[in-house]
Amino acid sequence: MQNLLKGKKGIIFGALDSNSIAWKVAEKAHEQGAEFVLTNAPVALRLGTISELAEKTGSKVIPADATSMMDLEHLVDEAMKILGGKVDFVLHSIGMSVNVRRGNHYTHQDYNFTKTGWDVSALSFHRMMSVLYERDAVNKWGSIIALSYMAAQRVFPDYNDMADNKAYLESVARSFGYFFGRDRKVRVNTISQSPTPTTAGSGVKGFDGFIAYAEEMSPLGNATAAECADYTISLFSDLTKKVTLQNLFHDGGFSNMGVSSPIMDRFMNSYNTENGIEEPTEE
Ligand SMILES: NC(=O)c1ccc[n+]([C@@H]2O[C@H](COP(=O)([O-])OP(=O)(O)OC[C@H]3O[C@@H](n4cnc5c(N)ncnc54)[C@H](O)[C@@H]3O)[C@@H](O)[C@H]2O)c1
Per residue in 102-150, pLDDT tens? Predict the structure, then answer.
């Protein structure tokens, strides 16, 4: 343990079960000496196993639906009471698309579902920061992070309307991050994480193929949830004070790849088979 977060206090959104990225962040933040409150939507508190995490990390759990201003205001007020003042870090680890859940194709969405997914996955980040800002709830040199995915920049057809939600989320990080930086010296960033086997991740159609492809494409391989948590801790720590308004790729190099040799070899093998082309034999 390096005590990277010793004396720091925070709020962690989105730990559902032990696979959740937020769960790993909470474990690592605890290891590094932080104190925090955990929060999730009331329904997730009933279905998930967050109380185990709370016990393990000595944390209180405060229910909050991230689409409700009333819940968020109550959460921030209670967190400041429990922690005895302002917070130093906040993690937004929330995502959900009703269109994905219901199997609606991107070209034929139910727009009421689209609005709900956007509210939960993207606008909630603005709401959360608005409450923190209005209540002046974050200490100078604090750090706010949300989790994103590269479908915000590039096309992943089965990621559906979550791609648009992530683009909005990343934009909010920059726009709100300006005011948090200028007025409070607080940094705001998004981490764009590799595909990761969690409840939210596995809900995306064709996830197994998706994660295997990314693994072969990335020179360092996919980043795990635990590795994402390590990276998040570094961004909560005082070692990264001047990093803000960034979308930071944490993906083993995937985002800068064109093609990798294992992927090309597989393509050429099936291409040759389909076209009856024989592999040149070595003399
Ligand atoms: N798993 C991946 O492949 C992957 C890749 C890149 C980014 N991400 C992002 O990481 C974040 C965390 O997801 P995860 O993969 O750990 O999955 P997860 O399913 O464990 O976490 C998603 C969380 O969102 C919470 N949530 C949903 N609706 C809510 C609401 N109304 N109010 C409050 N909380 C609500 C859920 O209860 C759950 O805890 C999400 O933003 C996700 O898009 C995931």
Answer: 999 999 999 999 999 999 999 999 999 999 999 999 999 999 999 999 9
Per-residue model confidence (pLDDT) at position 83: 98
Sheet holding 247-250, edge to edge: 60-63, 35-40, 9-13, 87-92, 138-148, 187-193, 247-250
Pocket test for ligand 1, best of 11, 68, 94 (most atoms within 8 A of CB): 94
Report the nearest-CA residue for atom 24 of ligand 1.
Answer: 94
Residue type (1 letter), 147: L
Ligand 1 centroid, distance to 281 Cα (angstroms): 50
Residue 71 DSSP SS3 = helix
Closest C-alpha among 282, 57, 244, 277 to residue 146: 244
Report the pocket of ligand 1 as residue ranges, CB < 6 Å: 14, 16, 20-22, 40-41, 44, 65-67, 93-96, 120, 147-149, 193, 195-196, 198-201
d(CA 245, CA 177): 6
If one counts every other C-beta atom within 10 angstroms of the C-beta of residue 7, the result is 9
Q: What pLDDT is stored for residue 206 in this prediction?
A: 86
Residue of the nearest CA to atom 12 in ligand 1?
A: 93
Residues above pLDDT 90, as percent of the chain: 92
What does the pLDDT look like over 175-223, one tens digit per residue?
Answer: 999 999 999 999 999 999 999 999 888 888 888 888 999 999 999 999 9
pTM strictly above 0.90: yes
Whole-number Å distance, alpha carbon 41 to ligand 1 midpoint, is 11
Ligand 1: atom nearest CA of 195 is 3
